[in-house]
Specification:
- The chain is an alpha+beta fold.
- The chain folds into three domains: about 110 residues, Beta-Lactamase (2-Layer Sandwich), CATH 3.30.450.20; about 80 residues; about 150 residues, Histidine kinase-like ATPase, C-terminal domain (Heat Shock Protein 90).
- Helices cover about 45% and strands about 20% of the residues.
- The strands form three sheets. It has a five-stranded antiparallel beta sheet with strand order 2-1-5-4-3. It has a five-stranded mixed beta sheet with strand order 7-9-10-12-11.
- Helix 7 packs antiparallel against helix 8 and helix 10 runs antiparallel to helix 12.
- Bound molecules: adenosine-5'-diphosphate (ADP) and magnesium ion.
- Magnesium ion binds next to helix 10.
- The site of magnesium ion has 4 residues, from helix 10.
């Protein structure tokens, strides 16, 4: 083979120059922090945005192992994660993306959204990570602020707990009335079931009263429902991934500094659900906050939100089961018995309303919510949602 041709095709100076220039311009302009690593985790490329985000110069970062950009436990485990992926092909981040935490040069940590893609280079695989700072990204902040404003109707939902007990009291009146009208009518029917001629009208009146009271009870229940759902149904086709990512960012952002190893693992075959977005995000928010609070003194803090398609028998699109799993202490038996009832809390400052609100919302959507032990040795809350029928667009 002609050595001249060989070298010319592989490394023509003009080609190297233009490749290099292209690479430099990409690194300088890509808006997200971009980090390219090899199979060993060594940083090959480090974009300008990454320099600003992490506080390293590109010249310092290149050649270092990427785990330096992570807090523990990921830092110690990253080599293992990569080996595991190479050996099994089982991805936890690659092609999926997740919200996790990163570590700046000065040791401070911050929440990020990480997306990792994979490419095959001449000398093995390359992994490209795109990183968004969830605390600094102004767009995300605005989005969070918007969400926060929308979620202010939570306080309204929270008031539901106290309203519920007032309504329970109110419901007692028609129920007592129904019972005494029915009892009266039964007495008027007499021993042999044939009322005296003059009593027939009274029986009829008593039954009319009883049915009127039953309607009133129904109205009271409906009022409670309307109050919770803001009086109008706002269901629309939403993407589960968006609901989860936003609710998680919100729940984790306000939860204070932590070392949570967090992952979102959504079933790629289901994404669209027909829901009231704010309400379902409220459910996710409550469950994630509870999980974070439960893990406060756990040595290993693992949190995962995942979904699973539950196909239905025939025709219909079926259900999706959404799970929030933690590595906390699990449910105390006394708590488990009254889990979804309002005003049950084991926390000094707890209201004990979160889970009862979750149940009201999930059931109003035709779903079910329950708790089990989680794969991480803590608690897993599951709830189901109906999958939206095939989308019209996009
Ligand atoms: N992930 C969890 N792990 C352990 N216990 C939990 C978890 N989620 C909820 N609980 C228990 O259920 C109780 C009720 O939760 P909730 O209704 O959200 O009210 P609150 O959070 O105000 O206490 C909590 O106080 C806690 O004891
Ligand atoms: Mg709670």
């Amino acid at each position: 083979m002609c050595p001249f041709l060989d070298t010319a095709s592989a490394s023509h100076p003009a080609l190297i120059d233009s490749n290099h220039a292209l690479q430099q311009s990409i690194l300088a302009t890509v808006p997200d922090a971009m980090v390219v690593i090899d199979e060993a985790g060594t940083i090959l490329l480090f974009s300008d945005a990454a320099c600003r985000m992490f506080g390293y110069d590109a010249s310092e970062a290149v050649g270092q192992n990427v785990r330096g950009l992570m807090p523990n436990p990921d830092r110690d485990r990253h080599d293992h994660y990569m080996r595991h992926y190479m050996e099994t092909g089982e991805a936890h981040v690659i092609g999926i993306g997740r919200i996790t935490t990163a570590r700046r040069r000065d040791g401070s940590t911050f929440p990020i959204e990480l997306a990792v893609g994979e490419a095959r280079g001449d000398s093995g695989r390359l992994f490209t990570g795109f990183i968004r700072d969830l605390t600094e990204m102004r767009r995300a902040e605005r989005r969070l602020a918007d969400l926060q404003a929308e979620l202010s109707h939570i306080s309204r939902v929270s008031a539901m707990g106290s309203l519920a007990s007032a309504l329970a009291h109110e419901l007692n009146q028609p129920l007592t009335a129904i019972s005494s009208y029915a009892e009266g009518a039964r007495a008027l029917l007499g021993e042999d079931g044939t009322p005296a001629a003059g009593d027939i009208d009274m029986v009829r009146d008593a039954l009319a009263e009883a049915s009127g009271q039953a309607l009133r009870a129904g109205q009271i229940v409906r009022r409670l429902r309307e109050f919770i759902s803001r009086g109008e149904s706002e269901r629309s086709v939403e993407r589960l991934r968006r609901l989860v990512t936003e609710a998680a960012a919100l729940a984790l952002t306000g939860a204070g500094p932590s070392n949570i190893d967090f992952e979102i693992r959504l079933d790629p075959t289901v994404d669209r659900v027909l829901v009231d977005r704010i309400q379902i995000q409220q459910v996710l928010f409550n469950l994630i906050r509870n999980a974070v609070e439960a893990m406060q003194s756990a040595s290993r803090q693992r949190l995962a939100v995942y979904s699973q398609h539950l196909p239905s028998a025939k025709g219909a699109a079926g259900l999706v089961k959404v799970t929030v799993a933690d590595s906390g202490p699990g449910l105390a038996p006394a708590v488990a018995a009254v889990l979804f009832q309002p005003f049950n809390t084991s926390k000094a400052k707890g209201m004990g309303l979160g889970l009862s609100i979750c149940r009201t919302i999930v059931e109003a959507h035709g779903g079910r919510i329950w708790a089990e032990a989680s794969e991480f040795g803590g608690t897993a809350f599951h709830f189901t949602l109906e999958i939206a029928e095939e989308p019209q667009d996009d």
